[in-house]
Amino acid sequence: MTARTLVVLRHAKAANPSGLADRERPLSADGEHDARRVGEALAAQGLRPDLVLCSPSVRTRQTANLALPGADVLFEPAIYEAYPDELLTLIRRTDPRVRTLVLVGHNPGVHELVRQLTEDEDDGDAGFPPGAFAVIEVDGEWTELDVGRGIASWSPKKP
Question: Which Pfam family is one of those matched by this entry (predicted)?
Answer without folding.
Answer: His_Phos_1
